[in-house]
Structure formats: C-alpha cells, structure tokens
Amino acid sequence: MSHSYISIYSHLVFSTKNREAFLTPVIRERLWRVMAGIMKNNGIDAITIGGYEDHCHALLSLPSTIPIAEAAKKLKGISSKWLSEEYPELRNFEWQKGYAAFSVSTSQLKKVIAYINNQEEHHKAKTFRDEYISFLRGNNIPFDEKYI
To answer: Where are the domains of the chain?
Structure first.
C-alpha cells in the first residue's frame, strides 16, 4: 500500500478592498473564528488566523489536493459573504482582488504563529503597506507599486 506524506504550510496575506479599516476589534474576534471554520469545512487546517483593521493573515496547512489559489478563493469569498450578511454596515464588503502567499518551513511555524497573533501590537509601528512590501521583497517577489 502506498502512502503520501505532505507538509505544506502557507502564510496567506490579503487586505480589505482599498485598504478600508472595516475590521474593528469586535468584528475581528468573530471573523477569525469564522474563517477557521471555513477552512475546516473545506478540509484545510487553519493553524492561526489574525490581522488588523484592514487585512488578514492566515497560516494554513494545505492537503495535497487543494492548491493555495483554491484555499484563498474559498476563504475570501465565503468570509466576505458572511461579513456582508452579518454586519449591515458591511453589506458591500469586499476583500482585495489578489493576495500574497508564502511557504513556511516547519522550523518557522512558532515564529509565524507569534507574528500573526501579535498583529495589533505590530501595526502600532508599521503600516500594512510597509509590511506587505517587506514580505514581497524579503521573498524576492517582483511587484508593481500601483497594485500595492
């Protein structure tokens, strides 16, 4: 009998459309739990999900059958619908069209978890834009400033 052994961790990062600061502390607390449930319902283990007023970080353990693009589409699409239905003031809520995804080594999981769980403190000193650019540059990903 053959077996497949997979270890694929991905750090997914995306923002609200136009970087609008819609995600209040109350919304964030509920949203991260809902997003974890969305991932679980789709066969993906959400190690941790967090973020700040205008963006989300999700550390996911992907099975071999689900590409990151599919995970991002489900996470963003279903959570956007939930936000629109749950909060009348967000009835037109949208996430940005794109996202960034970074592979994470098993040896770096604790560090990434701590980083995601400390977003509120982290963003007292650094904007999401600066954080996003630093991730892209740190991972040698070419980008166009007009899409940042």
So the answer is: 9-136
Type and span of the H or E element at 61 = strand 55-61
Strand, coil or helix: what is 31? helix
| Unique residue bearing structure tokens 């540059």 | 137
Put simply, whether the predicted model's pTM sits higher than 0.70 gets the answer: yes
How far, rounded to the nearest angstrom, does the alpha carbon of residue 47 sit from its chain's CA centroid? Answer: 11
- Provide the CATH topology of domain 9-136: Alpha-Beta Plaits (3.30.70)
Burial 31-64 (b: 16+ CB within 10 A, else e): bbeebbebbeeeebebbbbbbbbbbbbbbbbbee
Condensed to tens digits (0 to 9), the pLDDT of residues 34-68 reads 999 999 999 999 999 999 999 999 999 999 999 99
